[in-house]
Amino acid sequence: MFRVTKPTSAEIVRAVERYSSLELRARMLDPRRGLQMSELPAGFVQDVSRSEIGMGRNAFEQAIRAFEQWRQFDLGWVRVGNIDAEIRVGQIVAVEVQALGLRSLNLSQIVSVTRETDVFGFIYKTTQHHAEEGEERFLLTFDPGTNEVHYELEAVSRPQHWLALLGYPVTRSFQHRFARESHQQMRDAVSESRQ
Length: 195
Fold this sequence. Notes:
The chain has 195 residues and is of the alpha+beta class. 27% of the residues lie in helices and 37% in strands. The protein has a single domain (2-30, 46-192), classed as Alpha-D-Glucose-1,6-Bisphosphate, Chain A, domain 4, CATH 3.30.530. The longest helix has 25 residues, at 168-192.
């Protein structure tokens, strides 16, 4: 999982194939409402961030296209390694992270997809090949009354790999950094469509 070299395309394909037969289920997050339990299991923390990323139906459609291209992960130090992955239930998503001189390949499985007129999003659950254990929800909403487009990111997680546990304060700072930069990336993606 952690290494100093970048995983090759062939290694990513093999890792995705190894986990593709999983049938994971969301237990903590609901596609629309988010956290669906009053008390988190031991060691888990919840992070929720929401921001306005644009205005109007066109902005919402552009945000959906950006999601489908995994732009919310295109941060330089984070990226989706299987960029052709579709947003569909059962899909394994391979997220590459480069930080502090180490690289990691973190695999999650999409367990829920929401496609409605004014809502688009998905939840993925981490596999055993991930630094963290938990679920993450990525949601786009369009409010026809205000014309606002929002991006909501919610994660419920705890360290799974011993390095993530050992460096827990650093891991948490990277989780917060990811949220901030992911929101900015989505604002930029929607803004680019207006130019």
